[in-house]
Amino acid sequence: MSAPFGRRALVVAQRREVGAYVVLVAPDPDGPAPRAGQFYMLAATAGWGADVDERPFLPRAFSVLRARPGGLEFMLEAVGPGTARLAALASGDGLWVTGPLGIGFDPPAGHDGGRRALLCGGGVGSAPLAIWQDELRRGDPDGPPARALLGFRDGAHAIGATLLHDARVATDDGSVGHHGPVTELLDAELDEDSHVIVYACGPPAMLEAVRARCAARGVPAQLALEAGMACGFGACFGCVVALADGSYVRLCVDGPVLDAARLSEVALP
Amino acid sequence: MIDLCGLRLADPVLNGSGTFDAIAAQRVFGDALVDDFPFSAFVSKTITLAPRAGNPPPRLWETAAGMINSIGLPNRGLAGYLEHDLPRLAALGVPLITNVMGAGADELVRLVDALGAREEVAAIELNVSCPNVRTGLDIGADPRELDAVLRAVRPHATKPLIVKLTPNTADVGLVARAAQDAGADAVSLINTLRAYAPSPRGGGEPWLGGETGGLSGPAIRAVALAQVRAVARRVTIPVIGMGGIQSGAHAAQFLAVGATAVAVGTESFRDPAAGARIRRELAEIHAKSGNTPPWKSSVSVA
User: What is the SS3 assignment for A147?
Assistant: First the structure.
C-alpha cells in the first residue's frame, strides 16, 4: 500500500527510555501499517534547526520499531543534532513523518523453504528486527520467536535487547552477555545449524562481517542498510550504495533491505 | 494561467531540475502523486547522451539551513530517457521540461534534435554548469562560451529553450544577457553554489565522493534573490527564479524582484508535497492582497 503523499504531523503519545535508547510512540491514524524493515523520515515540528550550526535541517530516516494499535514506535539514540532533537521530544510534541517508505524484509519462504529465520542486530539497528520478529511470529503463533542475536556497546545500551523476545546479547565491554562482537554469537549459531536465513541490521562494519560470514558458508542473508538520506522517496539520489556489479542503487526506494548476494561488500562510511 | 515562453501553466510554481523524481515518487505515493501533482510543470533531472552512474558516495552533507550535494548527474542516458521515462512522465498531465547537459555544442545539438522530435516535451532546459570538453571553460560561467554554444544549438531547437544559469560566475547578469542575445527563450537560476564539506575525521580531506558539491536550501536564498533581481533587470525574456524557496511568501519575493515563475527544490526533500503547499500559500497571498497576481497580468488570452 502506498504511503500518503507528503509529510504529516503526528503527536507523540509516549516517550520512554529503554536503557541508553529512547522509544517514541506516535499514533498514525492516516497511515497504512508498515512492513518490517520499512522506514519513515522523521523531523520535529518545532525546534528543527535550532541546534549547533543551525542544524538539523533535513529529516532523519528511522526504521520502524513496531506498529501497534497505540501507534508507530521508533527507537532512537541521540548521536547528532537530528537524533538529539527527536530524542528530546516529549508526550504531546509534534512529529513530522513521511512514510512508510522503502522495501522491507522478505520472508524465509521466499528463499528456500525450511530455512529458519535468524536475526542479528547491532545497537539501534535492533529496531527493524523487533517488528520482523513479531511479523514472523504471526505466521507461526505457536512456535518460539525467531532467534535474535544483538550486539551493544555496554550494559546501558544492552537494555535495548528487551525490545525483542529472548534475545541473546553480546557487549563490547563484556558487562552483559557474551564479551565480544555479536558476529561471534552468529558464528556459534551457524556452527550449530546453518540451515538459516540471516536478517541483519546494524553499523556498516557489523553488516560487512555478517555478509562475509554468510557468503563464506552459503547462507542467504538480508541486510537492512543505512546511508545519509535527504528525502527518502527517490528524489535526491543521495543514498546510493554500490552493488557487486558496480552499479548504484538508491537505498530509499530499492532498499533499505538488500539481499546480501547483491553486494560484494558493505562499504564503510 | 501563466504564459512562460509559450508554455501555458496553471500557476508559476515548478520544480528545480534534479530535485524530484516523479517516477520514483509515483511508485512510493501511488496515484495521489498524480492527482495532486505538486508542480504546474515538471522539469526532468539532467539527461546526457550516454548513461551516467553518478559520483561515488557519500553524496550528501547537511549544513546550516541547507545541504551540499555531489550527485554527479546519474541518468540512464538519452535513449533510456526517451524509451522508458518520457512516456511515464507524459502521464503526469503537466507540461514537461527536459533538462539536458552536453560536453559542448555537438552533444547538445544531438540532445536537442532528439527531444525536439518528441511531442511529449514542451520545452528544453540547458544545464550549462559544466566544462566544455574542448575549451575546458565552464560554458555557463563565460558569456562568450555560452554565446558560441547557444548559436550552434538554437537553429536546431523547435521547442522553447531555457538556459539554466550557474551562480558560480563573476557577473550572472552578463551571462544571462548573452543567453538572451543568442536566442534563449528564458533563463532559470540559480543552480547550486559550489561548496566544500571537510570530512568530520579532520585534516581537511573531502567528505563527499565527488570532493566538491553544490549548496542548496534556505542558506542560499538571499544570494538567489540578488542574482534573480540582477538578471531580471538585464533581460526581457522570462526568468525562472529558485534557491531556498520554502513558502509562498518566499515565492512571492522572487516574483516581486522580477521572476515570471519560481522553482522549488530542496524543500521537496523535507516534504514531498512542499510544492503543493507553496502553490496554495502563494495563491492565498495574492487573494489577500486584493491585487491581480503578477502572473495573471501576463496571460495572453488566445
Answer: strand
